[in-house]
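Here is the promised in-class demo. Please do not try to memorize the tokens; focus on the logic of going from shape to residues.
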């Protein structure tokens, strides 16, 4: 089956009722039988039927062996780091999602982990950061909010050369546009809060494992006992979103591409960051490893921080809110959101391009910029 078919049919009929839509089981606990023997399920934190449906569907569409759902994208990523041996050396992208930078520097470094932040979109930077004792190379492509592109093939080769594992945060691209496991990545990370949920009403994260190996077992052990598991309701909503992912990503990508091209020619706009533009430094790599370029873009305006914030308050359709991947378009001044330690240019605005008519979105931006 091709991707869209696989996504729609990633969950079958409910065997108990032949319901076409999957059931939701909110029960936190499951009874033993008359011989006091447990069935498949025991307690909600360990595993539960609705979550298991979502995990099986996600593993299928990512081309992985197993998936694990978490309470948030942060919880999913941190569970991987917590499952590495104490004192591990990890390479993170210089512009990694800012929450992971905080998790690394404020929590895991004091616990003995060692991190190197590398500009992984630049040739040679990753190879220079990798050490013989590197255990994990963390990839984020396209990155947030600069839309930088990391070459997945090169990153996998560099990690393998020292026996390190690779993790790819695929939140921006989703399996509809980019399939890191097929390029040799070991673990794929999603904030299901974003495109997989797709409607700005579910908070969660997930990991997809290329192999159901000892490291997968260790992460499962961490989730069970450190407790960062999602809820059955989260899993049910994420599963609902997953089934229409291909169709939504196609429209998100088409509209974002059109807006990026239009913004590039506009006076008052000093830079546009979108991997689909031929002038983007990662365009050739993105073209090789993505089937379309996604619904996220950012741009910089002349006039600095005040001008950028002003534009963010003048749109009528683009909602001034954080997050991304929903049906509605969002505009955000990342520098304000990330705080004083932010490495994002202060004149930058990030757009999550929704499913509205792209002509209306263009007119909205035109009015706000004017
Ligand atoms: C939002 C986001 C996360 C974190 O997900 P939460 O569900 O907010 O914890 C991780 N990576 C990327 C790229 C994100 O956009």
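The designed amino acids, position by position:
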């Amino acid at each position: 089956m091709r991707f869209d078919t696989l996504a729609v049919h990633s969950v079958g009929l409910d065997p108990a009722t032949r319901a076409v839509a999957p059931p939701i089981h909110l029960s936190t606990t499951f009874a033993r039988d008359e011989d006091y023997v447990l069935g498949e399920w025991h307690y909600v934190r360990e595993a539960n039927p609705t979550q298991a449906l979502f995990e099986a569907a996600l593993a299928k569409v990512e081309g992985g062996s197993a998936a694990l759902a978490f309470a948030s994208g942060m919880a999913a990523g941190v569970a991987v780091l917590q499952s590495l041996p104490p004192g591990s050396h990890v390479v993170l992208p210089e512009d990694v999602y800012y929450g992971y930078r905080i998790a690394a520097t404020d929590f895991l470094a004091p616990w003995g982990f060692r991190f190197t932040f590398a500009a992984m979109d630049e040739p040679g930077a990753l190879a220079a950061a990798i050490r013989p004792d590197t255990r994990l190379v963390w990839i984020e492509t396209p990155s947030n909010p600069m839309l930088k592109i990391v070459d997945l093939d090169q990153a996998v080769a560099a990690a393998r050369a020292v026996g390190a594992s690779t993790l790819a945060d695929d939140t921006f691209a989703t399996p509809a546009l980019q399939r890191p496991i097929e390029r040799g990545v070991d673990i794929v990370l999603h904030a299901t809060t974003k495109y997989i949920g797709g409607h700005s009403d579910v908070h969660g994260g997930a990991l997809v494992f290329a192999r159901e190996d000892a490291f997968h077992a260790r992460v499962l052990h961490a989730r069970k006992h450190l407790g960062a598991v999602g809820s059955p309701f989260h899993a049910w909503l994420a599963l609902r979103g997953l089934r229409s992912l291909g169709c939504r990503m196609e429209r998100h990508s088409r509209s974002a591409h059109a807006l990026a091209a239009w913004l590039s020619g506009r006076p008052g706009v000093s830079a546009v960051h979108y991997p689909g533009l031929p002038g983007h430094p990662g365009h050739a790599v993105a073209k090789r490893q993505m089937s379309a370029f996604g619904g996220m873009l950012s741009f910089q305006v002349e006039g600095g921080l005040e001008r950028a914030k002003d534009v963010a308050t003048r749109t009528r359709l683009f909602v001034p809110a954080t997050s991304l991947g929903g049906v509605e378009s969002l505009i955000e001044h990342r520098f304000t959101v990330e705080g004083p330690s932010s490495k994002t240019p202060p004149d930058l605005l990030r757009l999550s391009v929704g499913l509205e008519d792209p002509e209306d979105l263009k007119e909205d931006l035109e009015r706000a910029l004017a």
